[in-house]
């Protein structure tokens, strides 16, 4: 062939292009490839058109048109040769197959218009088509919609008609790929939006390109952000992490992550973000890349903070709770041996807090706890901690600098501050607290050990107020006994091992029984009788007293009513109240309930209170006493003479009976001073219309002196020791007999 060389070149280029394109089509995951394929297509079409037109025009004389048509026929691209008057239309096999027509039977002009996607005989459109250097058509065939990019050139111009050569490139697959890529891109974008993931990418680590979601998160105006601006938006504490992440290139290429707080540009508060980042090293052809995904984790962080708060912060006082104290305490304990440090642990207890709480209400109780915590907090020094252990128990850990007076001094200052705290409407209440302290690591083998020893020291004060006591190893044994006693007593209450004994009270003028005092006993299963002095104080400090007193009140009322029903003379049942019982806000209701339950008339019930108890809060005591008096319940002042011994209180307290303490009676027959005091007290009491009773009468001599001194009643071993109810039945009968004899023979 004369034109063999250029045509061969065209065919080679065509074949090469077709190869590239078909290869590209098999790799549908890159938008770049789509672009390459487009460009290649255009180049390819231009080359084909160029060569074919050259062949057709320059060598037309030497080319056999049949040969030419044959060449076109076999070319693996769509080719159409046509004249603008449509007298000549040649379409190669590739194009015919694509249109899906039987070429012989089909109207050629219609086939051409279909191939070009034009309306038949539309002159304007064909002009448009010719003018356009590349034109895209689409038409439907049995397999779907086909898209073809056309390149057309004029190969022959005559007066009447011109001949054009159109070479096509099938874009159908490319279009599909592009659509797929577009939807993949959309999918990617929406996924990012849905997952609320922002992307930040940088090739030079100076400027970052932010994805739309990252733009939204950071509140920036455009998608490029300077690294210095980004840095300034990060919380100062977290900048170091970010800087390290940017600078450090992880050679392993693995994904790392940091958490940092970022303030939205123009925003006022920080949000927490997780930044998962990766560095990609540059190669000879590619720039290095640094980028990562930003995920807002503020909510998770808030949850973590909340969990930590719930786990470690006391709800009422907002200082550390027991968990936190134990964790920090043990950490400090562990450092002691390593760093040769030592710490003081001060355990504090608000005196009579349960009374304050009952009296003033829970709101005021909480107010006191909060303020106490606040005071403690002021005494915390670096490395230490203030915490609420439970109820009204608090702890303070202070670093020791060799000053042994530090814990006592600090506790005293806390007491002073606390005493200044005023509770609205309860001015009469003076707040005080007690403290026990120990030192770690010397006072125990663990933090818990040391803290328990501080608690031992505190308990060793035995309920006294405003005490400050340091731990000594000798305390240990007695406290252990006490703790055990407390546990055993709790069990004893549940197992009904508590029982009331009754000690008669005698009218000194008639010798008749006028009352009994209910005295509690703990009778162990083996029959051992434990006296109240051994367990009532423990009960009071451990709040078991509430249960005990409830039992005494109800059982005393029930027994007295039973004796009445049994026909024994009406007598007064006296019960003993501790300060915890007496200062209860619902004291009146409880007493009323016991009376109602037993159907005992209030005048046959008497409550014994000690001086110390009544005077610890005199205003409140008077108000409580008046409440009981309103019910008709009698009030006795127990152990009179052992406490403050001020007779002036008799003016204020609405008592009905005064019990002279046993200490005055024991030696009254020899001790003149005791006799004078007793006589004077009886006189004054009488003037106030208060009856008197002497405790601990053990012999007739004492009885006689007291009768002479005009004491109304007597109680003591002379008449009877405390005894169980059944024994009292016998006593009643015996007493009735004796007194009947006395009345029969008054001399
Ligand atoms: P108290 O109320 O002063 O009770 C009188 C105590 O003196 C009783 O001791 C009684 O047995 C004892 N006693 C009576 N007569 C004589 C006597 O002639 N000579 C001697 N040496 N002692 C005599 P008890 O029963 O051991 O009670 C001791 C304290 O325990 C009571 O003192 C009272 O304060 C308290 N207590 C007793 N029972 C109860 C109770 O049910 N509740 C409360 N809160 N305290 C109670
Ligand atoms: Mg008593
Ligand atoms: Mg007494």
Structure description:
The chain contains 28 helices and 25 strands. With 747 residues, the protein is α+β, with helices and mostly antiparallel strands. It folds into 5 domains: 6-60; 65-176, 2-Layer Sandwich (Beta-Lactamase); 196-303, Beta-Lactamase, CATH 3.30.450; 313-473, Alpha-Beta Plaits; 487-736, TIM Barrel (Alpha-Beta Barrel), CATH 3.20.20. The strands form 4 sheets. Strands 17-18-20-21-22-23-24-25 form an 8-stranded mixed beta barrel, surrounded by 5 helices. A 6-stranded antiparallel beta sheet has the order 8-7-6-11-10-9, with helices on both faces. Helix 16 (447-459) links the parallel strand 15 (433-440) and strand 16. Helix 1 (4-25) runs antiparallel to helix 2 (31-58) and helix 13 (353-360) packs across helix 14 (362-378). The longest helix has 28 residues, at 31-58. Residues 1-6 have low confidence and may be disordered. Bound molecules: ligand C2E and magnesium ion (MG) (2 copies). Residues 517, 576, 608, 638 line the site of one magnesium ion. Ligand C2E binds at residues 503, 518-520, 531-533, 536, 552, 576-578, 608, 638-639, 695-696, 698, 715-717, 722.
The CATH class label of the largest domain is Alpha Beta
User: What percentage of the residues does DSSP assign to strands (E)?
Assistant: 15-25%
Biggest sheet statistics: 8 strands, mixed, barrel
Helix/strand class: alpha+beta
CATH architecture assignment of the largest domain? Alpha-Beta Barrel
Indicate the radius of gyration in whole angstroms: 53 Å
Spans of at least 5 consecutive residues with low confidence: 1-6
Q: What's the CATH topology label of the largest domain? A: TIM Barrel
Number of domains: 5
Per CATH, the superfamily of the largest domain is EAL domain
Tell me the total number of β-strands.
25
Average pLDDT figure: 84
Give the helix proportion (percent range): 40-55%
Ligands in the model, by name, code or SMILES, are: ligand C2E, magnesium ion
Number of helices: 28
